[in-house]
Amino acid sequence: MTRYKAIIFDLDGTLVHSAPDLHSAANAALTASGRKTLDLATITSFIGNGVEKLVERCLRATGPYSQALHGTAMTAFMDSYDANMTTLTRPYPGVPDCLTRLKDNAVPLGICTNKPTEPARKVCDGLDLSRFFTVIIGAERDQARKPDPQPLLRCAAELRADPRDILYVGDSGVDHATAQNAGVAFRLFSGGYLKSPIPDLRADQIFERWSESGLRTDQAGFVTVAAH
Ligand SMILES: O=C(O)COP(=O)(O)O
Ligand SMILES: [Mg+2]
Q1: Which controlled-vocabulary keywords does the entry list (predicted)?
Q2: What pLDDT, on the 0 to 100 scale, is given for residue 228?
Q3: pTM for the full model?
Q4: Domains of the chain
Q5: What separation in Å is there between the alpha carbon of 219 and the centre of ligand 1?
Q6: Is there an atom of ligand 1 within 6 Å of 167 CB?
Q7: For the segment 69-111, what is each residue's pLDDT rounded down to a tens digit?
Q8: How far apart are CA 175 and CA 207, in angstroms?
């Protein structure tokens, strides 16, 4: 059985259901840009490549796109999101229990997200999740972001773990590609914002509810994955 020394998690759509607050902020950005608003399912389908891309996709879905419009829309988006990062956002059921068990067994835990680092930290602070994580790495301007392997490898380095000893848990094709690019094992939470099935995943690499994550620790403190 494969054993892992540390676990890195994606954030949006994996640990937290953040789409409702992202939806409100995206609609504030659209309204400020003179565009019609979009429904939750549409905006949820735009999540996964960072907030700039989310806003760009909203603008392209509602009319012509320009860089200037994107700047205005981003300001409105961040103003709204800054004030409402955890108004509607909650951890998925079972997440705090799972993290508590891992932390109690001294498993090093990290987050690697395409959300900008500061909002990622604020969301974790607001939902009492920060205490579980040694490192939170988000997207930064001018730095490579997922599916580039760099942020995931940086996260592994900060956890002092070899990439071969890491498990990355995410909800999207971007997360899967990131893990592959970094040579890191992957497990999919399919109850988040997955857009289409990932063809080369085995059924035993997928879980739909956190109560069925299969993440366990053995007596030596290594993580194993048990079939549910
Ligand atoms: O901000 C996004 O688009 C996605 O963030 P994630 O990488 O935590 O899923
Ligand atoms: Mg995600």
Answers
A1: Carbohydrate metabolism, Hydrolase, Magnesium, Metal-binding
A2: 60
A3: 0.96
A4: 6-17+91-225 (3.40.50.1000), 19-83 (1.10.150)
A5: 34
A6: no
A7: 999 999 999 999 999 999 999 999 999 999 999 999 999 999 9
A8: 15
pLDDT at position 226: 86
Tokens coding 58: 């909203």
CA 121 to chain centre: 12
162: annotated active-site residue:
no
Query: For ligand 1, is residue 147 a contact (CB within 6 Å)?
Result: no
Report how far ligand 2's centroid is from the alpha carbon of 168 (Å).
Answer: 12
Q: Is any ligand 1 atom within 6 A of the Cβ of residue 121?
A: no
Q: Are 8 and 182 in contact (CB under 8 A)?
A: no
Has the ipTM of the complex gone over 0.85? yes
Which pLDDT does position 200 carry in this prediction? 86
- For the chain, how many residues are written? 228
| Mutation choice for ligand 1 from 113, 129, 150, 175, CB with most ligand atoms inside 8 A | 113
pLDDT at position 1: 76
What is the CA(188)–ligand 2 centre distance, in A? 10
Q: Which residues of the chain have pLDDT under 70?
A: 228
The answer to whether the CB of 189 falls within 8 A of the CB of 73 is no
pLDDT, residue 85, reads: 97
- Measuring CA to CA, how many Å separate 142 from each of 139, 145, 157, 202? 9, 9, 20, 35
CA dist., res. 49 & res. 115, Å (int) = 8
